[in-house]
Amino acid sequence: MLRYSLAKQGRRAGRKSGTVAYLPEIPVRLSAERDYEKALRSMLRQMAAEVRESIIPAYEADLAQRKAQEAITVDAADRSWFVRLDALKASLVRVAQSTVDRILNLEAERHTENFAAAVKRAIGIDIRAVIAQEDLGDYLTTASARNASLIQSLADDTVKKVEQAVYQNSVAGNSVTTLRKQLVQEFGVSESRAKLIASDQMGKANADLTEIRQRQAGVTEYVWSTSHDERVRSRHRALDGKRYKWGEATGAEQGLPPGKPIRCRCWARGVIEF
């Protein structure tokens, strides 16, 4: 991994020994978060369309047949009804993962540019020739795998909920209207989860990149900084202004640094000691 020292470069550029500078925030880009959520919603909505086109008609036909035959015993829905949905899910997951990978790569590029700009503003040094996108290769591989797992889990769980709803309603002999209402609720839950994943993962990615870039630059400590609004959770509000070393447990959930607890909007204000 790339290693250099902003403190040493600052002293060479005339910064007085013993003084301190702080790196400004690199905020999460909300448009990237929206693009991430859009990719997941697209996946879910195409799955919902497939349910309407193939599974609902199969359920309706089966229900009509049982009524015509005045069946006393009721079998569970046929698993073959879900074959098309399974195949579509696999395809949609690949598309969503590819889209999210592109978003992560673009955010890494943006963060690299913004980190260089932040250093320039803080201490007047141009480090663009020092840092490069290639320095983030290992991290991006790990981040891609983490997000792929979340996308796969979202898709798998959604299909499982669809199957359970169909089976339960089939056994109960419920109407198509009743089944539709339950499926709308289940897809609504999945869309809410998609929104959470997008928000949380883009926040984590930004926090990860901040930590990586600061550590590479020899910035070993940071000040916990909140968003200073009414949405800041009380636990994090109590941490505002506290100074930590990278790798040191904080007072946040699981001892995590800012930006890494679920939906945390706090950030690490890097401390440069000359």
Uncertain residue ranges: none
Main beta-sheet annotation? 4 strands, antiparallel
How many β-strands, per DSSP?
A: 4
Which structural category do the helix and sheet elements fall into?
alpha+beta
Mean pLDDT: 94
H/E series, N to C? HEHHHHEHEE
Strand portion, in percent? 5-15%
The total tally of domains equals 1
How does this model look, in words?
The protein is of the alpha+beta class and 274 residues long. It has one domain (6-71, 79-273). Helices cover 62% and strands 7% of the residues. The protein is built from six helices and four strands. It has helices at residues 6-12, 30-69, 83-123, 137-172, 176-216, 234-237, and strands at residues 20-22, 221-225, 243-245, 267-273. A four-stranded antiparallel β-sheet has the order 1-4-2-3, covered by helices on one side. It starts with 5 loop residues before the first helix and ends with a strand.
Short description:
It comes from Martelella lutilitoris. With 274 residues, this protein is of the alpha+beta class.
Topology:
Elements: H1 6-12, E1 20-22, H2 30-69, H3 83-123, H4 137-172, H5 176-216, E2 221-225, H6 234-237, E3 243-245, E4 267-273
Antiparallel strand pairs: 1-4, 2-3, 2-4
Helix pairs in contact: 2-3, 2-4, 2-5, 3-4, 3-5, 4-5
Keywords:
alpha+beta, four-stranded antiparallel beta sheet
